[in-house]
Specification:
The complex is a heterodimer of chains A (384) and B (550). Chain A is 62% helix and 4% strand. Chain A is mainly alpha-helical. Chain A folds into three domains: 1-151 and 295-361, no CATH class; 152-225, no CATH class; 230-294. Helix content of chain B is 35%, strand content 21%. The chains are: A mainly alpha (384), B alpha/beta (550).
Chain lengths: 384, 550
């Protein structure tokens, strides 16, 4: 692949974006340093701005940022409401009226003195959660969710199809409900509540059933499920392997992220889980014969993107092991956070994909004739 | 290519087999049209070709169906996917993905075709069907005609030897239907694909057919050369009816052939004034509905643009125009329950949009394009009782209406089990219970066979005779010729033609009915007219070809 080819506009492999984003998320989970968290947010924002497409899901990053602000506000708000009870040496900001609670709620305290220390620590916590959310948001914004489903291994193909069909069918159901509601009005029936439910539900359910039968028939006659006759034993083994693998993955991830758990719950469990899941997937996918149309290539930009995320995470974890206080600045007593050198460089390294990846393809030319909204659409036979 | 040997198909709970002892051979590379009334087993016959019947639908198949030497007994539909491509009636319902390109590739992915081959075939198919500029478009943004072509393309990419299409043009306007049919004939001619089509509107397809399979409705099958089968078949397009009446042999199936046969007939018609195609029941036709400056828009899309329309008592008006021209939106806006962004509608000095729905339907009744949306009770009797209660009319009123429109629908039948035509009659009876002055019908002719359409035309005439003003949106030109007094053509939300039926449709290349095309430029529209005028009695036999001027 020549240099010129690499620069041609195309979408990056969705998995590359997900690895990169998970790398950032790992960093966010290991630190409460607001400067580092802010830096992660900036990096994610810059990359999203540089490499997102024109697709509908690509406009969602703003929503994740808003959600982040809500999370911080909640966290701080709850601490102010419930967190009274100031320890020695804390800086009291103000005192709220104390509301007595009934005896069975002992241990919970409403109102009271609020200290700067506790508010700041709540804000740090909130910011960490918000940053995590935004990392996931960045991945969702950059990677086409449907293409991400397409790279599912063969053993999980059915799952992907189910999700795809659900995504396609949901708007049809909404349209169906709207159409029937409109039609009810023609009969002069404007009943609300329980009586209306039957009038609307019956035709809609009938419609949905009809559609699903038609879809199933169409999929069957187009070859869906061909030679997919897997012996029961193999199927069971696959299921067990996948389930055990998934449990391993969950435990391992938890162990890795929570620094207080025993070491064995971290990397080893994660590796074991991955191995089990991989075995299950390989076993399940062995008999499936299917190809993919225009699969996303995994080339140098993908490697670079994924590695930049991994490198940033690993460097930050290493820095944390070396100097934990820089990643988690003290809030008791309050201290100004500092910007530690190694994690900063590591996070900045995750900025690389904004430059090294190929630019996203140009927006598809807009329709010459805009599609009529569902209401204006010509009828499509529903009851053949 | 396709072989049926002593095939009998019986659905569970059915007393009679749907197909009985059918023997049929469709050779490779033929275009075979399956005709028959609703419920005669067309869909069953089509479904049996790729094994959907009985593998998917249930039921019992005796005998043997084989395609390209493969028995459907041992090959379920998915194993035949590389040989038989099936296009269903509703193209959107069969779509698995949501963009055009992925939809084309889906079938090939299932067949494990190598990625480079897939890429090549997708490009070829895009070109073959003229879809290349739409390749990244989401499927829901496509028009009905484009969608139908996508559905055909999606099965073509698997390079099937047999293509099975169930009413591929039923939702399309005449022009889009021509496009789809042109695509299909091209496949037969250039690629040697064997095509089996079921179709109600024979006038559209029968001229392309190499073979016609006729299902009379008793489970048997007649098949053979198109002109021979059509000579006897109960379902026939106007051109065949004309040919039979005039005694033309062999029966012409295309307008071009019929014109050659009609030289003598046109001579006889010289100076004969055509009787009205649709009887004009009322002398005085007061204006019942006044609409001025109707505007409907959905966001940036203008569906109806400043339309003025008057509907008169005793008159049937047909609304025509291509898919998405704004016909439905206009009807809904007139009724008052649809969106309307501007303009006034005046019925009896009141605007239905200002009234509560229960009162609006006393002024204007609308039958939507999916009539079953209005039905939710368990029996016909309950629906009718409910309709009488809703409109506070005397009990039994709507039952009487229904019996006049479609006699013989039992009280205890489930509305969903009725045929398309019966269901339409039921909804019409429900809407008429409110005694509206204006009756609007949105696409009532879809899925109706010739008999049901004929009955609908009679129904509309009756409504007009009772003094209702009737407006029907439809793509069916033959139906318009037999039922409408006046035609309004919409394009891009504007009225581009408005006048009596003959003057609007005779000259139009897309909307002219077959009789008008054959006898052009004389304004004859229907076989019925010719029969009334009595000009067919002395029709001369077909002249030799050499005498016919080109």
């Amino acid at each position: 692949m020549s240099r010129a080819t690499r620069r041609l506009p195309r979408t990056l492999h969705p998995i590359a974006w997900w690895i990169w984003a998970i790398g950032l998320a790992v960093i966010a989970s290991r630190t409460t340093n607001p400067l580092l968290l802010g830096l992660v947010l900036v990096v994610a924002g810059v990359v999203v701005a540089a490499r997102r497409t024109e697709a509908p899901w690509a406009r969602a990053f703003k929503l994740y940022l808003l959600l982040g602000i809500v999370v911080i506000a909640f966290r701080v708000g709850f601490r102010v409401l419930l967190g009274g009870d100031v320890g020695a040496g804390e800086h009291v900001l103000f005192t709220m009226p104390r509301i007595p609670l009934p005896g069975f709620m002992a241990g919970v305290q409403l109102g009271g003195a609020v200290s700067a220390d506790s508010v700041v620590s709540a804000a740090y916590d909130g910011l960490r959660l918000a940053t995590l959310l935004c990392c996931i948001g960045a991945a969702n914004t950059l990677a086409n969710p449907k293409r991400a489903l397409r790279v599912l291994p063969a053993a999980l193909y059915e799952l992907g199809v189910t999700i795809t069909v659900a995504i396609t069918v949901a708007p049809q159901l909404v349209e169906s409900v709207q159409r029937v509601r409109r039609a009810r009005k023609l009969r002069g029936d404007t009943a609300r509540g329980r009586r209306a439910v039957r009038g609307i539900a019956m035709p809609v359910i009938h419609d949905a059933l009809d559609r699903s039968f038609q879809l199933a028939a169409a999929m069957d006659s187009r070859g869906y499920g061909r030679s997919g006759a897997v012996p029961t034993r193999v199927r069971r083994v696959t299921a067990v392997l996948l389930l055990a693998g998934l449990v391993g993955l969950c435990l391992g991830t938890y162990g890795l992220l929570d620094t207080t758990t025993p070491r064995v719950l971290g990397v080893p469990t994660l590796a074991f889980g991955i191995a089990l899941a991989a075995a299950g997937i390989v076993l399940g996918g062995r008999r499936v014969r299917r190809t993919r149309y225009r699969p996303d290539p995994w080339a140098r930009p993908e490697w670079c993107t994924a590695l930049s995320g991994i490198a940033a995470a690993v460097a930050t974890i290493a820095a944390g092991a070396h100097n934990a206080s820089a990643l988690n600045p003290s809030t008791f007593p309050l201290a100004w956070p500092t910007l530690p050198l190694l994690p900063t460089v590591a996070i900045l390294c995750a900025l690389l994909p904004a430059v090294i990846t190929p630019p996203p393809p140009l927006p598809t030319p807009s329709p010459t004739r805009p599609a009529p909204p569902p209401a204006a659409r010509e009828p499509v036979a529903a009851h053949a | 290519m396709i072989r049926f040997e002593h095939v009998t198909i019986t659905y569970p709970d059915a007393e009679q087999p749907t197909l009985r002892d059918v023997d049929l051979v469709v050779p490779a590379g033929e275009l075979c049209v399956v005709i028959g009334a609703t419920g005669s087993g067309k869909s069953t016959l089509l479904g049996a070709i790729n094994g959907l019947v009985p593998h998917f639908t249930g039921g019992r198949l005796q005998g043997r169906v084989s395609v390209d030497g493969r028995d459907t007994r041992t090959h379920p539909p998915r194993e035949l996917a590389d040989t038989v491509g099936v296009v269903t009636q509703d193209p959107l319902a069969g779509c698995v993905t949501d963009t055009l390109e992925e939809e084309l590739a889906y079938g090939m992915e299932q067949l494990a075709i190598a990625p480079p081959v897939m890429r090549k075939r997708v490009e070829e198919t895009l070109d073959l069907l003229g879809l290349s500029d739409l390749r990244y478009r989401a499927l829901h943004q496509l028009s009905a005609g484009q969608l139908q072509r996508v559905a055909i393309g999606a099965v073509l990419t698997a390079h099937p030897k047999v293509l099975v299409l169930d009413e591929p043009t039923s939702a399309l306007d005449p022009t889009a239907a021509e496009e789809v049919l042109a695509t299909i004939t091209r496949l037969v001619h250039d690629l040697g694909v064997t095509v089996v089509i079921a179709e109600h509107r024979l006038e559209r397809v029968v001229q392309y057919a190499d073979r016609v399979v006729y299902l009379p409705g008793d489970g048997t099958v007649e098949h053979g050369e198109p002109d021979q089968v059509l000579e006897r078949a109960a379902v026939a397009p106007p051109i065949v009816e004309l040919g039979r009446l005039a005694g033309w042999k062999p029966l012409p199936l295309s307008v071009r052939d019929a014109r050659r046969c009609a030289v003598a007939l046109t001579r006889d018609l010289e100076g004969v004034e055509p009787p009205p195609a649709v009887p004009q029941p009322l002398e005085a036709r007061p204006t019942v509905l006044h609409a001025r400056g109707i505007v409907v828009r959905y966001g940036a899309v203008v569906a109806v643009r400043d339309v003025d329309l008057d509907l008169h008592a005793g008159e049937v008006v047909a609304l025509m125009g291509r898919n998405g021209a704004g016909k439905s939106s206009l009807l809904w806006a007139l009724q008052g329950s649809g969106a309307r962004n501007g303009g006034r509608v005046d019925v009896d000095g009141r605007d239905p949009a200002d009234l509560a729905p229960a009162d609006a339907r006393r002024l204007v009744g609308l039958v939507p394009h999916t009539p079953s949306d209005l039905l939710y009770l368990d029996t016909v009797a309950q629906e009718l009782e409910r309709a009488d209660a809703e409109s506070a009319s005397a009990g039994g009123h709507s039952r009487a209406t229904l019996d006049r429109l479609a006699p013989g629908i039992p009280d205890e039948a489930h509305p969903r089990d009725l045929s398309e035509g019966q269901r339409l009659s039921l909804v019409l009876a429900i809407q008429l219970a409110a005694a509206p002055k204006v009756v609007l019908l949105d696409e009532p002719t879809r899925g109706l066979d010739y008999r049901a359409k004929h009955e609908l035309a009679l129904m509309l005439r009756e409504l007009a005779a009772l003094g209702h003003a009737v407006a029907v949106s439809t793509h069916d030109v033959e139906f318009v010729a037999t039922s409408a007094h006046r035609v309004v053509v919409l394009a891009e939300g504007e009225i581009v033609a408005d006048g009596d039926t003959a003057s609007v449709i005779v000259a139009s290349p897309a909307f002219a009915p077959q009789v008008a095309k054959i006898l052009a430029p004389r304004p004859w529209l229907t076989v019925e007219q010719l029969r009334i005028a009595g000009v067919l009695a002395g029709a001369t036999p077909r002249p030799a070809r050499s005498e016919v001027a080109p």
